[in-house]
Design a protein that fits this description.
GO cellular component, one term: cytosol
Coiled coil: 140-167
Strand order of the largest sheet: 3-4-6-5
Shape: elongated
CATH class of the largest domain: Mainly Alpha
Pfam family, one: RRF
Number of strands: 6
CATH topology of the largest domain: Topoisomerase I, Chain A, domain 4
CATH superfamily of the largest domain: Ribosome-recycling factor
Distance between the termini: 51 Å
Keywords: Coiled coil, Cytoplasm, Protein biosynthesis
Radius of gyration: 22 Å
Domain Ribosome recycling factor: 21-184
CATH architecture of the largest domain: Orthogonal Bundle
Length: 186
């Protein structure tokens, strides 16, 4: 493995950490509706549990309401039950084939709890990035020990890995601050 391979590997894994954080932050619900909120809700479909998006069309009616349109007649009641029983605190209402899922307004206390959750997710992402930095530095030390690279090359490569880590941590901080601002906005 060369220095370039180690850097590229660390960079791609750190990018995946950022994508995972973005995905996790989308699941934290703000006062606005987002179709992705229902992604983790599963419904019984002929004996197997599948995501709602595989048995219905999930879209936005307005900024605070999600609409769920089942593809089959009998699925409406099952989907409604699955949403109601999820830990999201949502209460869907049925209008014929269409399910309306209004997003309740967040209380100040709940907003503060959600900011703590967002900070925790951000901290987990930073820990993952730091672990990737440590792994990359270990690989570089191994190359130095095996005399495949010089001490100067190892030092420069470690500095590059540190700069990459700093850049990714700054990106994580930016994402966390943006989500906190989104949650605290009334």
């Amino acid at each position: 493995m060369t220095i370039a391979d180690i850097k590229k590997n660390a960079e791609s894994k750190m990018a995946k950490s950022i994508e995972a954080l973005k995905s996790d932050l989308q699941k934290v619900r703000t006062g606005r509706a987002h179709p992705g909120i229902l992604d983790q809700v599963h419904v019984d479909y002929y004996g197997s549990m599948v995501p709602i998006s595989q048995v219905a069309n999930v879209s936005l009616l307005d900024a605070r309401t999600i609409s769920v349109t089942p593809w089959e007649k009998g699925m409406g009641a099952k989907i409604e039950k699955a949403i109601r029983e999820s830990d999201l605190g949502l209460n869907p209402s049925s209008q014929g084939d269409l399910l309306r899922v209004p997003m309740p307004a967040l209380t100040e206390e709940r907003r503060k709890e959600l900011t703590k959750v967002v900070r925790h997710e951000g901290e987990n992402a930073k820990v993952a990035v730091r672990n990737l930095r440590r792994d990359a530095n270990d690989h570089l030390k191994r190359l130095l020990k095996d005399k495949e690279i010089s001490e100067d090359d190892e030092r420069r490569a470690q500095d590059d890995v540190q700069k990459l880590t700093d850049k990714v941590v700054a990106e994580i901080d930016k994402l966390v601050h943006a989500k906190e601002a989104d949650i605290l906005a009334v």
